[in-house]
Amino acid sequence: MNRIVTRKLLLGLTLVAALVVLALAASPGVSAKGEGKVHPAVGVYEQQHPGQKVPVIVRVKKGAHQAASQLSASVGASEDLSLIDAFAAAVSPADVERLASDPDVRMVSLDAVMTASGGKSDSVDHSALATAYPFAAAAVSAWDAGVTGEGVTVAVIDSGISGADDFQGRLAAKFDFSSLDKGPADRNGHGTYVAGIIAGRTGGYVGIAPEASLLSLKVTDRQGAALASDVIQALQWAVDHKDEYGIRVVNISLTSSIADSYRQDPLDAAVEQAWFHGIAVVVAAGNYGGQDFAVDHAPANDPYVISVGAFADQGTADTADDRPADWSGRGLTVDGYAKPEVLAPGQDIVATLSSQGSFLAKALPQAVVDGRYLRLSGTSSSAAVVSGVMALMFQQDPGLTPDQAKFRLVRSAPPMDGWQAPRVDAYAAVFSTAAGQANQDAGPSDLIDPATGQIIYDSVLWQSVLWRSVLWRSVLWSSVLWAK
Prior knowledge:
This protein is of the alpha/beta class and 484 residues long. Helix content is 29%, strand content 20%. It contains 17 helices and 24 strands. Strands 6, 7, 10, 12, 14, 15, 16 and 19 form an 8-stranded mixed β-sheet that branches. Strands 2-3-1-4 form a 4-stranded antiparallel β-sheet, with helices on both faces.
């Protein structure tokens, strides 16, 4: 049963970090029996919202399905997150302590707010293209060689997808996982815009993979906010229905509002499980520039995804004038991984508008183009470009695993002056024959067994290591970056 989360609660979640440092000196107030099993953010939320219910994700031990069901029922309405052996609920502070003290519970984490990273074949006729980004990403050359994404499905975890005319019958289905805005319609507009960059095809505005199929997995509300648990549910659905819909790629142009190590974040565990089940997960690197901890927000902080930064194509097909975007997230994660892995066009990108009544159309009337399209900047756009490129790659070579596809994508990408990450080259990636595996130096989430893609439960992390370490007490929380 879905929870009802009020706007007041959502605003409370986004305001937690504003005063988080003031609350660090106090512990979450959990009894010794449950010590180390409650994420510090839960305690901070309790302190800043006394007497209010706390949105949490509760993970249980292996085989504790009956216990999980009983615990979930004991706190009222909740959501099943079986992908990571967990459930989500809004609970009282007393219930937080009770859950943490239960021997079958592994961890109680804050259900973090997610925000969008936007707002900052020869059968495709590109002679009238009104946008430069397909040229800048070298997708047009792939179309001319007959590779358009046909037969590949990209699942878009976002605000929904509308604008069926732009997708010409290729929108396979719509599903709603949002706790904040029920119904499949895209009332925000971000999801439709992202889908247009991936696979739109109308007039002069053509996406990177114009014959790929799309799935709409709605998680955000009208204003573009979502809960991490909603994104996890959507990922769980994608894994469960991967073969039924032919899902090869998931696009997540959203970032968590909490900076964290990927090894302990529940959303990171979920994207890794999708990756290990054969789905390439493409995510926005975020728009925090080169600030401290700019790339420590799930899911972009995870090595088992393709995180994408942005460059400006200057509105021309000539790549010589392209420049990295200063606001594009970049740097080393607290776990030592360089992010992003690749850059793609992300400034002033025009794509499908869901409707004139959408939140983005009303909030940014100057961004509406020709009454049917929207011009935005952000790594949301860049991630969508790369999701389209991945669709092209999987059409050309359906046998690729996510690790193999990521290896070819990055290996074939030419350098961009002044940046560690290279720029995407769709044609080179599609026709690359490079043999190799990405992520060979990466360690998976402490919840995931990379050999099976299944959750594991014997990690000491949840018991004693990072939750009480300097990482939380003095590093991440002292400079945490909250999405705007």
